[in-house]
Amino acid sequence: HPETRCLGWHFILLNLVLGLAHIVVLFNVGSYVALEPHAVGDLGGVLPSFGRWAQTNFMIALALGFPLARWLSGHYGEPRVLNLAFIAYAVASAFCATVDSIEGFVSARILLGLAGGVTLPLSQSLLLKEYPDHLKPLGLAIWGFFTLMPFTLGLATGGWLADHWDWRALFYLNILLAGSIVALVAALFHGKRHDVRHEQFDLVGFSLLAVIFGGLLTILNGGNDFDWFDDPLLCGMLVVVIVAVPVWIVWELGERDPAIDLRLFAHRNFSVGLLCLVLGFLSIQGLLALFVVQLQMLMGYSSELAGLVFLPMVLLGIPTIVLMHEIAKRLDVRWLACLNGLGFAATFYWIGLFDDPHSYDQIFWPMVLEGIFLGSFFTPLTVLTLHGLSGEQLLRAAETANILRIAAGAIGITWQGIVLFRRLPFHQLHLSDHFGGRMSASYDPLNQFTAKLQALGFDPIMVQRKVQLIIKQEAGILALNDAFLLSSYLCLGIAALVWFAHSSRVPVLNPAEAVRELQAEEMMEQP
């Protein structure tokens, strides 16, 4: 019976399988970041900045998988497409685990992201169809627990695998789990019929969007290493992006079923809410990726310890998610979004004052606080973004927001790398001038310190090298602080921007429409 089937073993097993499917993909968002230094060292010893290519292109492909999932599931059915996507996921993981060059690894990560992006909306949709209407909010609340995993458990898992096994073990584990999911989904949905709807796929719009995202990301990823537009390839990419953007906008506005429905931006709340989501996720995802890598490369943390640094966010983050879903029903979410922006601004400013690489306390307590604001980030902005939309617009808006937000996360990773790259030499020069006596002839502590060490018998070259390393580390910490302070100011802007949207205080929707809105909200809360 529809009202009691939730108590059956089939339903419980389906929850476990589709929850596992979701976790497998989401863990790869965070796990790779923790093991990135190991990967770049093993893939030909390339520059650390090249390791970001694998993560940012993975996330862009993840975003592009959402419109593919809608079209493919409409033609071939959700369970079949989900299984095919996980087969592709296993194949891509095998390539990631065995490839020896950075070029091959980035290509495999793109395929991995595209397959993962297809699985995310399908696994959620299949699960929600099994819930009776009166229990759908419960299912959506359970789904929300996965929001923090890439930022917490994913990082710790990736770090542990890199230190105790091998960084490639993550992808071997993907193969095992993806194969298990394929077998279980095939068994659970065997003999069941699923609605098939033949929708037109906007191939031109999708292709132009991929060109824009790929070109923009190539410019940002390669700018520091290839001297920006002095490089012919990056200059050519800039021309392609500049031409593709207006062509894509005109095409999408004239398309009946566009890859991204730009008409949604005519709604004020959608535009304001999405802009806040994009800017906020750009800062959060970028700082997370930057911090976990620099903890290892700059401060000497192991991958496991660097991942564990972010685990305290779980302490208050998960309870906050549950609480926020209830509060958002009763208050104007502009207040919640504003307080969240102010909270992130204060937390990032706190971390931006970090000055002791050996002090774990200076990191632990800000991370506990950040967990609260990460848990309360998605819900109010999602409610604000979807306010005033109804029917099919809700799901289209959720899909569009997902695509642009995840793409913003990829851009945020490379953007924060640019901030670090630009500020590092500035602080190195400033510290050398300040402590080397070039700013004041009467104040030369560096020379005095060097002289004392030489008097104790240390080799002058050894002393000079050690001093250079200390200055470089301190300059790196200051550059990292600049990235957090810059994001702090950006979050202040988000706190002010939300007030340009309309209030979310509206009459209660009918039950069917309320369930559809909840489903759209949870779609947007994917990390």
Structural account:
- This protein has 527 residues and is mostly helical.
- 76% of the residues lie in helices and 0% in strands.
- It has 19 helices and no strands.
- It has helices spanning 9-42, 48-76, 78-98, 102-129, 136-144, 153-164, 169-188, 203-223, 232-254, 268-297, 303-308, 313-327, 333-351, 361-375, 378-386, 392-435, 445-455, 460-497, 511-524.
- Helix 15 packs across helix 19.
- The chain is globular, with a radius of gyration of 24 Å.
- It starts with 8 loop residues before the first helix and ends with a helix.
- Residues 1-7 have low confidence and may be disordered.
| Shape label | globular
Give the termini distance in whole angstroms: 34 Å
In terms of quaternary structure, the protein is: single chain
Mean pLDDT across all residues, rounded? 82
- Low-confidence stretches at least 5 residues in length (pLDDT < 50)? 1-7
N to C succession of SSEs: HHHHHHHHHHHHHHHHHHH
Please identify the structural class as seen in this structure.
mainly alpha
- Total beta strand runs: 0
The DSSP helix count reads: 19
Largest sheet: none
* Percent of sequence in beta strands: under 5%
- Rg, rounded, reads 24 Å
What level of helicity do the residues show? over 70%
